[in-house]
Amino acid sequence: MSTDRYQSPLSERYASREMQFLFSPDMKFRTWRRLWIALAETEKELGLGITQEQIDEMKAHQDDINYDVAKEREKLVRHDVMSHVYAYGVQCPKAKPIIHLGATSCYVGDNTDIIIMTEALRLVKKKLVNVIAQLSKFAEKYKSLPTLAFTHFQPAQPTTVGKRATLWAQEFLMDLEDLDYVLSTMKLLGSKGTTGTQASFLELFDGDQEKVDQIDPMIAKKMGFSACVPVSGQTYSRKTDTRVLNVLAGIAASAHKMSNDIRLLQHLKEVEEPFEKNQIGSSAMAYKRNPMRSERIASLARYVLCDALNPAITSSCQWFERTLDDSANKRLSVPEGFLAVDGILDLCLNVTDGLKVYPKVIEKHLMAELPFMATENIMMDAVKAGGDRQELHEKIRTLSMEAGRRVKEEGADNNLLELIAAEPSFGMSLEELKKSMDPSRYVGRSREQVDAFLERTVRPVLKENEELLGVKAEINV
């Protein structure tokens, strides 16, 4: 590793090798050569004077890229595509005259970008499906464990630990729907020439419209795509990058929300992310167990949310059939968005696979607040026994305020049940009131909702994508 120049943390610390390869020079330039072969084969099949010997020569050197030749050529001509056309021609002297025939730079550049983004979306999908699968297991395991719910981060009507996890899973499922839609709409640019009119190919094929019309479908099929975009300028619409990065931003937002909840729960000591035996939480405070994985999820997610603005702005700034002010931005925003989301999903896989739950702490927090939540049930029982609902409501409100004051001002335990038992109009003993403090009475349909959500929503998705399941992630730091 070079230590005297900047190294991207996305490569060094966060993204997987699999995602890094997709945005590597090897992936890029091998794809260029595959595209040049596909173009030559298509032109040959449509009747141009290209020989099988030329195509075989190109295939023989598809992957052994002579980077040194291309690099030296680029210093001279200041054009990356023509430098690689030249380098390929050095290796393929017989095919040299027909490499890149009729095409413009965007033929290899833009089609490669679409191919790489498509493959990267598939990798993101694989990891996303596995995050959903792990959350579904967690939800199933803890679907009946009552816990204090929060609105405004204030104690509210109880839920269950598993039900809360379904909220995280549901947002990731929404992201999966968006990802699947965008994946289904990915189309190659094809080979449309300098302004998208295919004028060069019309010239090559002596004005034969039917043959020119076949070029894009044939190239798409050879490259594993169903279609090319129907019309374009020199480039594919940069709105495609916007759609792709918006999917990544959606995943980042879902992960950020989940990581925030886990961080808050870890503060409460109710849930804890994985913490390794030799892991150090703080250089100064040896006792600390900081939620560093969840914090890293949040940190990377904020980067992706901001990064998604880049393609939107770039798309809006393109002039007519093309300008080049997209190029430098695309080289940064698209790969780094994918590398960051890859790191986020690896962290999500790691965290959800090892989430530790502390039922005793959860119960302690819940029981400290449950008397307040039980007041409506207590009041209804007293009304059934002949009490006046309006009168009882006012009394229970007054007693709740007093119990709350005592907890907050004196640091004392919640004595609301004792105060209610001492009030004759309720007609209930302390023992009777304590019997009503079963947390499962106050979680509504949490368990049933988890069962229905997993059965009707999650499992069909996992079944549909079962070939993607089984992914585990290792985090680098």
UniProtKB/TrEMBL annotation:
The reaction(s) this protein catalyses: N(6)-(1,2-dicarboxyethyl)-AMP = fumarate + AMP; (2S)-2-[5-amino-1-(5-phospho-beta-D-ribosyl)imidazole-4-carboxamido]succinate = 5-amino-1-(5-phospho-beta-D-ribosyl)imidazole-4-carboxamide + fumarate
Any one biological process term the GO annotation gives: amino acid biosynthetic process
GO (cellular component) term, any one: cytosol
Listed SUPFAM superfamilies: L-aspartase-like
EC number: 4.3.2.2
Gene Ontology molecular-function annotations: (S)-2-(5-amino-1-(5-phospho-D-ribosyl)imidazole-4-carboxamido) succinate lyase (fumarate-forming) activity; N6-(1,2-dicarboxyethyl)AMP AMP-lyase (fumarate-forming) activity
InterPro entries: AdenyloSucc_lyase_C, Fumarate_lyase_CS, Fumarate_lyase_fam, Fumarate_lyase_N, L-Aspartase-like, Pur_lyase
Pathway(s) it belongs to: Purine metabolism; IMP biosynthesis via de novo pathway; 5-amino-1-(5-phospho-D-ribosyl)imidazole-4-carboxamide from 5-amino-1-(5-phospho-D-ribosyl)imidazole-4-carboxylate: step 2/2; Purine metabolism; AMP biosynthesis via de novo pathway; AMP from IMP: step 2/2
Domain Adenylosuccinate lyase C-terminal: 370-454
Protein keywords: Amino-acid biosynthesis, Lyase, Purine biosynthesis
Membership in a protein family: Belongs to the lyase 1 family. Adenylosuccinate lyase subfamily.
Name of this chain's protein: Adenylosuccinate lyase
Organism: Candidatus Choladousia intestinavium
